[in-house]
Amino acid sequence: MSVQHDRVAVEKYHGTGNDFIVVDAVESIPDRPAFATTHCDRETGVDHEASSRTGADGVLFLALEARYSPPRVVMTLVQPDGSVAAMCGNGARVAAAWAAERTGSTELMIDTPAGTRRAVVDGDDVTIEMGVPRFAPRDVPLARETELTEENVGDLVVTAVNTGVPHAVAIVDDVDDVDLEAVAPAIRHADVFPEGANVTIASRVDTDTNAEGAPRFRQRTYERGVEGETRSCGTGAVAVAAVAKRLGLVDGDETVTVSPPGGDLRITVPDGESATLAGPAEREFVGELDTVMRSI
Q1: Do 201 and 98 share a domain, yes or no?
Q2: What is the pLDDT of residues 230-269, one digit of tens each?
Q3: How far apart are CA 57 and CA 40, in angstroms?
Q4: Is 88 a catalytic residue?
Q5: Of 209, 220, 222, which is closest to residue 250 (Cα–Cα)?
Q6: Those residues with Cβ within 8 angstroms of residue 225's Cβ, 6 or more apart along the chain or in another chain
Q7: What percent of the chain has pLDDT over 90?
Q8: Are residues 117 and 155 in the same domain?
Q9: Which domain holds residue 165?
Q10: Which member of 46, 88, 250, 269 is catalytic?
Q11: Buried b (16+ CB within 10 A) or exposed e, 23-53
Q12: Which of 77, 226, 233, 237 is catalytic?
């Protein structure tokens, strides 16, 4: 018996520090969860001199359907624990940037398990529709029949919202004062969240506004599936803006800047319409990785 190492072409992208291995879905990966678990590992995973970090926050398997107008991309995100995420805002922006590079189109449709999202690419800046944030218990989902708004769950006071995936959002005085790795797991696995939840904290920056004069929030997110804090979370940024609007902290349809550790994202949450997420998506390198080893 011998072990065969097949190689597959990959690219590495990031959106405000949320980094992904990108694989064209035409490539054969015998075991996608094992591929993601192996190469996303922050200590032993993918490494390259052009990348600031070892490993990744997930693997994007992208199937380009260029015959459509605008072109469509079927996006499957496999997370470091091998699970599949229904939606990832930064991942969808990366998918749009990847497809724009191949088609020359500045408008793309991204098909995700959470629905089809329209994206517009302007250089390195990508705007993606994120759907209407949902607070209803069946949509989050919650293990109860009433919404969860500013209630104690674990050590934080949270509001639950689904922005493609469930988030428990806590507005705090200063995100730097929270030991997120310590408090988040109990909330992420709380009984009220039957499918688990991402845990996002945010603090208002009253002395700083974006170019439009709208408020800015700092953000940190402990991601379900990553099982740790990431440098950026697009669905979390939208969740922050949606919850801030729900709690009366921002007005109307103004653009809100949300700043995770990896950079700035611009969010709009119009009444009854799709929220939007905008920010940079950049390619770090092109290379090859081993597929899952198989015995022959």
Answers
A1: no
A2: 999 999 999 999 999 999 999 877 899 999 999 999 999 9
A3: 6
A4: yes
A5: 209
A6: 58, 79, 80, 81, 83, 85
A7: 84
A8: no
A9: 133-273
A10: 88
A11: bbbeeebeebbebbbbbbeeeebbeeeebeb
A12: 233
Residues 117 and 31 in one domain: yes
pTM summary value: 0.90
- Stretch among 26-30, 59-63, 95-99, 174-178 having the lowest mean pLDDT: 26-30
Q: How far is CA 220 from CA 29, 49, 259, 276, in A?
A: 32, 27, 8, 19
Q: What is the phi-psi region of residue 187: left when phi exceeds 0, alpha when psi lies from -120 to 50, beta otherwise?
A: alpha
pLDDT digits (tens, 9 = 90+) for 145-192: 999 999 999 999 999 999 999 999 999 999 999 999 999 999 999 999
Going by C-beta distance under 8 Å and a sequence separation of 6 or more, which residues neighbour residue 211?
Answer: none
CA angle, 226 then 197 then 15, to 5°: 45
Cα dihedral value 109, 20, 81, 166, nearest 10: -50
Task: Name the residue with tokens 């993601």.
Answer: 36
Would you state the pLDDT for residue 212?
52
Q: Which CATH number characterizes residue 59's domain?
A: 3.10.310.10
Report the pLDDT value the prediction gives residue 149, as an integer from 0 to 100: 98
Please report where in the chains the tokens 């709380």 appear, as a residue: 190
* 132, burial (CB in 10 Å: exposed 0-12, middle 13-18, buried 19+): middle
How many domains is the chain built from? Answer: 2
Residue type, position 115, single letter: G
> Residues of the chain with pLDDT > 70: what percent?
94
